[in-house]
Amino acid sequence: MIELARSNWDAEAGAAPGLVLAGFWAEWCLPSHALAGALEAAESLYAGRLRVGLVDVDREPELAERCRILGLPSVLLMQGGREVLRRVGLLPRKDLLELLEARLAPSP
């Protein structure tokens, strides 16, 4: 997983081609830790077709503000640098994968 920050947001997510799944989390937020497993599953299932990254909002408050993150955990799906999906709160693995299924087919 990519560690996303202000310094690499545009290159890795904000203006990057293809699909990028960005998870916003904090160490102190227990649901944020549960999100990590869902992101890892998505990264594995869609390897080569989806980039997955994490933003620690405590280290990157300006980026969280720029992306209008109001609750944790939050997930943004970016396509070609444009936000196409946003979910706030704990998103179980099954639900996340179902959302991605609409945009990507799993590897054979």
Structural account:
- With 108 residues, the chain is α/β, with parallel strands linked by helices.
- The protein has a single domain, classed as Glutaredoxin, CATH 3.40.30.
- The chain has four helices and five strands, in the order βαβαβαββα.
- The chain has helices spanning 9-14, 30-45, 61-66, 93-101, and strands spanning 2-3, 19-25, 50-56, 74-79, 82-88.
- It has a five-stranded mixed sheet with strand order 1-3-2-4-5.
- Helix 2 (30-45) packs across helix 4 (93-101).
- The longest helix is centred in the middle third of the chain and has 16 residues, at 30-45.
- The chain starts with a strand and ends in a 7-residue tail after the last helix.
- The relative contact order is 0.24.
Q: What characteristics describe this protein?
A:
108 residues, alpha/beta, Glutaredoxin, five-stranded mixed sheet, 5 strands
Quick synopsis:
By secondary structure, the protein is an alpha/beta fold. The protein has four helices and five strands; from the N terminus they run E-H-E-H-E-H-E-E-H.
